TrEMBL record:
It comes from Taibaiella soli. Mg(2+) binds at S236, T257. Homodimer. Heterotetramer of two MnmE and two MnmG subunits. This is tRNA modification GTPase MnmE. One of its GO terms (biological process) is tRNA wobble uridine modification. Pfam families: MMR_HSR1, MnmE_helical, TrmE_N. InterPro entries: G_TrmE, GTP-bd, GTP-bd_TrmE_N, GTPase_MnmE, MnmE_dom2, MnmE_helical, P-loop_NTPase, Small_GTP-bd. GO terms for cellular component: cytosol. Its cofactor is K(+).
Amino acid sequence: MFSINETIVALATPPGEGAIGVIRLSGKDAITIADKIFKGKKLANQATHTLHFGKIVDAEQQNRIVDEVVASLYKGPKSYTGEDIVEISCHGSDYVLQQVIGLCLREGAQMAKPGEFTQRAFLNGKMDLTQAEAVADLIASQSSAAHQAAMHNLRGGFSHELKMMRDQLINFSALIELELDFSQEDVEFADRSQLYALLNDAIEKVAALIQSFHLGNAIKNGIKVAIIGKPNAGKSTLLNALLNEERAIVSDIAGTTRDTIEETLNINGVVFRLIDTAGIREHTSDAIESIGVERSKKAMQEADVVVYLFDVTENSLTDIEEQIMKFESNNIHYILAGNKVDTLGLDITKEKFALLQQMLFISAKDKENIHQLKQTLYDRVVAGELKQEGTIITNARHLAALKDVLFSLNDIRNGMDNSLPGDLIALDIRKCLFHLGTITGEVQVDRDILGAIFGKFCIGK
Ligand code: GDP
């Protein structure tokens, strides 16, 4: 594991050419090392949180000037890592940056491992684990919703919620133990209904957090949408209409290969990923319908929400009702969109499908009501769930720990239901506090887990 005695160095900005590149040094010798290569004011004598112009020179090569730079000085513990930090802003040439890093290494710094700066911040108590994880999420955020969720956690929103729950449990535990102290006298000090109320409240909160993961994960990774419908329903026309209107960002989502580049829509700051758009395009003129059907099935299984598109002229009310039954019996979250309303006319279409609630009437060709379709996607998938106040879980590690918390909360409740002795209940409470503590890192977290969390960071963070 990391040795906190070492002073570490890394490029903090992305590699490649840029206007500036920032090299970060952190550790007990950060200022001494910087002073050996920085010619300007002696940094050790300067006040913390100050900027200094100077030159980086190579003493072993007759003080050859490597670059003109600005050094930012942060003396611990008031710094990101809690240690002394010097950040050297150089001109952003790979050559210059490598030279400066090389000089720092020569003067005794060690190359930082991925996430090591943030890991030190955690180890030095500058932030808890959820905040450290939020740093990674913030850097990776691609939409305003993902950004907002990461910011909430970074600013300690989730930690605060966990702390409240912890306090509540400690309070609960105190009441139970009070009862223990007087057990000989057979008195119930802790008002049972009050205990149940505390417990039920905690169970409700944890369950809501667990529930929020579905949306949180979707926000973080994009909400998967499948456009499904018979051949000629107008799927590819709709796809184009959706993409044109939003001037979609075509991005390669991390972890996928180039040939599975997805098309994405940003609706009110949330990323929606349109899945199997290649399938939609390929199979419009494809006679082998079965392949298309297989692909649709797969897309449907993967999707968070399905847009079922149908031609209002070609389908009867019964056709659609049958389709709805299929969706419902398979628990598929769907949105109904009747297409080609222009051919039938809005009034007649509405009359024909009057029995279908929540159906959208669109014309993909004329781009009619495309905006409404997008708003519906947002409202059904995001707004409906976002209504719950507070934190949204976006992290699988937190989810696993919360499930353990919920499990032990239920154990406590069962214990009370069965009038277990107070000391046994107190044991369950301790278990529950332990699981809560693993989320923020208050209790000792496994080294492997720390490694997994910080290993995902890039070097320099
Ligand atoms: P897909 O097989 O579901 O992808 O369907 P396409 O997008 O290829 O559309 C099939 C045909 O329907 C094409 O000739 C489109 O121009 C036509 N079409 C699509 N949307 C509309 C619409 O809103 N109104 C009308 N009148 N025709 C449409």
